[in-house]
Amino acid sequence: MEIIKVRDYEELSQKASSYILSKVKQIESPVLGLATGSTPEGLYSQLVDEYKKGNISYKNVTTFNLDEYTNIDSTDPNSYHFFMNKHLLGHIDIPKTQINLPNGSVQDLEAECLEYDEKITRAGKIDLQILGIGVNGHIGFNEPGTPFTSRTHIVTLDESTREANSRFFSSIDEVPTHAITMGIGTIMESKEILLLVSGEQKADTLNRLLNGEVSEDFPASILHNHSKVTVIADAAACSKLA
Ligand code: F6R
């Protein structure tokens, strides 16, 4: 695991954006794994700016998002579909047919999970997966205790995760209780992973990730077993490193 320490959130977003743009330029038909949440917002804004300046085209890019709430329509402002359109996908030249997010509003959620993994395989696997990390070490919506071998599946969200995500809703009661997430096994099959960690509230989390044991109690710890992981972390997130 390689760690790149940066000054602040702005530098983190810039570094992450340059990293991704170099992949998009290098690979003929790049497959990117995308995350939602606050952490990649600055990165997405940079990726949009680069497109608007005419420096990059995303015509050949295929994307797979990590997760989506269940029982929420893709047009709902709280859905991850909506988030991705608002922050990135609605502003660039990626063809709609190359955009993939789990569909949490279908009847047969189990079939949706199977189909999602198959689609990733058919696309030739993810070239670069972008990840954020939850304070409890979750990646995607894989909460502590999730088997490292898990494939895309339905999860019951941790109370701490619902609480953390309630900032996007008018009250915690409105935060869905379930979601579809790429499994840890699915994430680990990505050819390369870029993990972004920002802010003081993630300082203990980053310390545990870098210095703790590999354990299903702390899902992100599995990243130690991946051969190509880069972590970009700002000074606030690095403030408690042992
Ligand atoms: C989002 C996701 C989550 C977030 C994590 C951190 O698609 O999969 O694992 O990356 O909850 O969220 P933020 O960035 O809001 O702190």
Structure description:
With 242 residues, the chain is α/β, with parallel strands linked by helices. The protein has one domain (2-234): Rossmann fold (3-Layer(aba) Sandwich), CATH 3.40.50.1360. It has helices at residues 9-26, 41-52, 80-87, 109-122, 159-165, 184-188, 203-211, and strands at 2-6, 31-34, 62-65, 67-69, 99-100, 128-131, 153-156, 178-181, 193-197, 229-234. The strands form two sheets. The chain has a seven-stranded parallel beta sheet, covered by helices on one side. Strands 4-8-7 form a three-stranded antiparallel beta sheet, covered by helices on one side. Helix 1 (9-26) crosses helix 2. The two termini are 16 Å apart. The model has no long low-confidence stretch (mean pLDDT 96). Fructose -6-phosphate binds next to loops.
Give a summary of the structure in a few sentences:
With 242 residues, this protein is an alpha/beta fold. It contains seven helices and ten strands. It has a single domain, classed as Rossmann fold.
CATH architecture: 3-Layer(aba) Sandwich
Q: What distance lies between the first and last C-alpha atoms, to the nearest angstrom?
A: 16 Å
Residue-averaged pLDDT:
96
Number of strands: 10
CATH topology: Rossmann fold
Low-confidence stretches: none
The shape, in one word, is: globular
Reported for the largest beta sheet, the result is: 7 strands, parallel
The fraction of residues in strands falls at 15-25%
Order of helices and strands: EHEHEEHEHEEHEHEHE
Strand-pairing-aware structural class: alpha/beta
Order of adjacent strands in the largest pleated sheet: 1-10-9-6-2-3-5
Helix content: 25-40%
Radius of gyration: 17 Å
Q: Can you tell me the CATH class?
A: Alpha Beta
List ligands, each type once.
fructose -6-phosphate
Number of helices: 7
Count of domain modules: 1
GO molecular function: glucosamine-6-phosphate deaminase activity; identical protein binding
Function: Catalyzes the reversible isomerization-deamination of glucosamine 6-phosphate (GlcN6P) to form fructose 6-phosphate (Fru6P) and ammonium ion.
Keywords: Carbohydrate metabolism, Hydrolase
Protein name: Glucosamine-6-phosphate deaminase
